[in-house]
Amino acid sequence: MHTGGHCLTLASVPGDTAPPPLVVRPLGGANCSSVGSVVDLLFLTATAGGALLVAVSAALAPAKPAEPAPTEPAPPLDEDPP
Amino acid sequence: MKTRLEPFGAWVRLDDPPVLVALDPDQARRLGLEGADLWKSSTDAPTAPVEVHLAVNQRCSVGCAGCYLDATPQGEEPSTDELLGRLRALAEAGVFVVALGGGEPLLRPDLPVLAREARRLGMSPVMTTSGAGLTPERARGLGAFAQVNVSHDGVDGGYEQVRGVAGAAMAERALQALTEAGVRVGINLVLTRRTFDRVEATAARAAALGAREIQLLRYKPSGRAARLDYLERRLQPAQIDTLPALLASLVRSSGLSVRIDCSMIPWLAGSELDPALAERFGVFGCEAGRHLAATTVQGRVAGCSFLDATGLLSGEIAGSYRSQPALAALRSFADAPPEPCASCPWRRVCRGGCRAVAAWYGDSMQPDPECPRVRRHAAEAR
Known about the structure:
Shape of chain B: globular
Number of domains of chain B: 2
Strand content of chain B: 15-25%
Distance between the termini of chain B: 54 Å
Distance between the termini of chain A: 75 Å
CATH topology of the largest domain in chain B: TIM Barrel
Largest sheet of chain A: none
Number of helices of chain B: 16
Shape of chain A: globular
Helix content of chain A: 10-25%
Largest interface: A-B, 43 and 85 residues
Radius of gyration of chain A: 24 Å
Mean pLDDT of chain A: 69
Order of helices and strands of chain A: EEHH
Number of strands of chain A: 2
Number of strands of chain B: 13
CATH superfamily of the largest domain in chain B: Aldolase class I
Low-confidence stretches of chain A: 69-82
Mean pLDDT of chain B: 94
Largest sheet of chain B: 10 strands, mixed
Structural class of chain B: alpha/beta
Oligomer: heterodimer
Strand content of chain A: 5-15%
Order of helices and strands of chain B: EEEHEHEHEHEHHEHEHHHEHEEEHHHHH
Strand order of the largest sheet of chain B: 10-9-8-7-6-5-4-11-12-13
Helix content of chain B: 25-40%
Radius of gyration of chain B: 20 Å
CATH architecture of the largest domain in chain B: Alpha-Beta Barrel
C-alpha cells in the first residue's frame, strides 16, 4: 500500500551522534477516550524528525557549571552567625 | 522538566520542545536520575500511566447516537472535592497528562478550578467537549487547559449523520470562541463510513477557525454504539485500506498536526511506513493499562474509557497500578499474541490492536478482527 509519497525509515532520520532517546513523544492533544499519537513525523521529511531529535538532545544536555559569581566584600556582621 | 523512573529507564517531560522522552538507564543517569531496584525489576510493567482520562461526569444533553459512555441528562456527576482528590492521586502516581471528559464537561462550573489544580500538581490538563454551552466568557475561563478539543465529526451534514444531532454549527462556534480566548484548540473526528470522505474538508474548516490539531478516532462498539448497526456505521475495509494515504495528505496539506488514537495503529500495519520510526516517535497501539488509564465517574480505574472498570480505585494507582490483575492481563496480550500478530513486523508497536473492539467480537484476548492482516489471515483459514 502506498501512503501517497516517499517512504521514510528510521535509518533516514538524521540526528545527533549521541544515542537518541528510546522514544520521543510529542505532547499536546486532548482526547478523553483514547490516547493519541502524533503521526506527522511518519509522513514528513527526514529533516523534520532529525530536527526534533537534535532539539531534544540539546534540551537534555547536562547544564554547564554556573560561572562563579563576582566576589564582593562581605558586609560587616552585626552578630555571630548561627 | 518533570521526570519519572520506570523499569526501562525514565520518562522525562520537556517543555521546549514539548515532548515526553523515554530514556534508557545510562541516559537517565546523565540527568542525575538513579533507578536502583526499579532498573533491576524482572517486569517491564509501567509504574503508572502517562495519561489518564478523568471522567468528570456521565451527564450530557446532546444525546449523540453513538455515545461511548451512554451519557444522559440525568447522569452521575462527582463533586468538586472528589475530583480534586482524584487529581492529587494521579499526581502522586506521576501522571503527566490528565484528560477531562464526560459526558459533557462544560456542564460543570468548576472546570477552571480543576485545570488550575492539575497545573499546580505538575500535570498538563486537557479537555474534550461538544461545545454545548460554551460562551465566549466561559472560553476565557479555560486558559489553564493546555488544549481543548471540540468534537466535530464532519462538515456538510457529516456530524448529523454520525451523531443524530445537528451539532456542527455548535462545534464551530466553540472553536471560534476558544481561539479568540487564546486557548489552543483541536478537533476530535470520529471516523465512520459516513465521515471518512469529509475528513479533509472538515480539517480545512477547523483550521480556518483556528484549530491546531485534528485527532482522528476509531468508531468503537461501546456504550450506545455497541449495537449490531455498529457493523454498518464503522469504517469499512476499503476505507481502512486508504487511511495511510489520507493521513499523508492531511499531514502535508491541512496545516494541522495529525493525531490518531491507539486503536488505529493496526490500520497502518499494511502500509510502507517504518514501524521502527513509529516506535521512535511514540506512535503506539493499544495503550490500555500501560501508558493510558481511565477513571470512571465512580473513581474506579479502567485500562481505557472503552473497557470495564477494574476494582482499583484512583487513589490506589500510585502503589498498585503494576500489579492490578486485569490491567496486567491487558498488557500481557502484547507480549505473546497469537498469529497473525506474532509474526507481524508491527507487533511491538501495534500490540495486537484494540482490546475493546476484540471484546465486542467475542474475546478481548484475540487479535483485533478489523486489522487488515487479521482479516486476511481469517479469510485464508476458511
